[in-house]
């Protein structure tokens, strides 16, 4: 419970926490931001880390001179691409071993076949769109690796997705993060970003349920 409370506070007051980190660590904040974005996209077990909101907050601090905006953008794009690549290869190497047993309780071989067909058909679209959906973006690269999606094809869409995702939120924060209304209601803005991010997944879920009825 204490962990969840701390996580909730981190999200709602991300601007204050990031300001403290910048004050305490200075230029090393770049490395911290890189690590958080890398872990959020690179490991299936860390989808709870801030992604969209952190990018937006970082962009708003870049606007007031705390970061070099171009360097920040390139660095976090690299973090996102590296994270997705790590996630892909974890899925690629671990997935088949888990699926080697037909009666595996975790994953079955038929799931590998379905995932392979899904990514062969929708791979590019899925990898790009998944960037903008929290939690889903953490699992999409892993499933791409499990499904044996061609890596060169995966990395092309991964790069496009990273450029759009990081750029969209960092530059939104850069241009709008310091507007009086946004600064005075930063917590509300962060919640709005999260809700907008998960909205496509919720809509797709209900569309799928409606089709299955």
Low-pLDDT residue intervals, each spanning 5 or more residues: none
By helix and strand content, what is the structural category? mainly alpha
Output the radius of gyration.
18 Å
Q: Summarize the main sheet.
A: none
Q: What is the N-to-C order of secondary-structure elements (H for helix, E for strand)?
A: HHHHHHHHHH
Q: Which percent range describes the beta-strand content?
A: under 5%
- Quaternary structure: single chain
For the record, give the distance between the C-alpha atoms at the N and C termini, rounded to a whole number: 37 Å
Number of strands: 0
Total helix count?
Answer: 10
In helices, the fraction of residues equals over 70%
What do you see in this structure?
This protein is mainly alpha-helical and 213 residues long. Helix 2 packs across helix 4, helix 4 crosses helix 8 and helix 6 crosses helix 7. It starts with a helix and ends with a helix.
Which secondary structure elements does this structure contain, and how are they paired or packed?
Layout lengths: L1 H11 L1 H12 L3 H14 L9 H12 L5 H31 L9 H22 L5 H11 L4 H26 L3 H5 L1 H27 L1
Helix pairs in contact: 2-4, 3-5, 4-8, 5-7, 5-8, 6-7, 6-8
Briefly characterize the structure:
This protein is mainly alpha-helical and 213 residues long. It has helices spanning 2-12, 14-25, 29-42, 52-63, 69-99, 109-130, 136-146, 151-176, 180-184, 186-212.
Key structural traits:
213 residues; single chain; mainly alpha
């Amino acid at each position: 419970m204490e962990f969840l409370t701390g996580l909730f506070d981190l999200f709602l007051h991300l601007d204050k926490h990031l300001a403290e980190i910048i004050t305490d660590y200075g230029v090393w904040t770049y490395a911290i931001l890189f690590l958080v974005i890398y872990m959020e996209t690179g490991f299936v077990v860390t989808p709870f880390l801030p992604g969209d909101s952190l990018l937006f907050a970082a962009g708003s601090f870049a606007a007031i001179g705390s970061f070099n905006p171009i360097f920040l953008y390139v660095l976090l794009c690299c973090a996102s691409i590296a994270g997705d690549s790590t996630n892909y290869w974890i899925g690629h190497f671990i997935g088949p071993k888990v699926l080697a047993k037909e009666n595996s309780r975790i994953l079955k071989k038929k799931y590998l076949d379905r995932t392979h067909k899904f990514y062969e058909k929708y791979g590019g679209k899925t990898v790009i769109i998944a960037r903008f959906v929290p939690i889903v973006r953490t699992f999409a690269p892993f499933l791409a690796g499990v499904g044996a999606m061609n890596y060169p094809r995966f990395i092309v869409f991964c790069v496009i997705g990273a450029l759009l995702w990081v750029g969209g939120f960092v530059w939104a924060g850069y241009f709008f993060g310091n507007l009086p209304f946004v600064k005075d209601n930063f917590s509300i803005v962060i919640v709005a970003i999260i809700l907008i991010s998960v909205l496509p997944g919720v809509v797709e879920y209900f569309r799928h349920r409606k089709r299955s009825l």
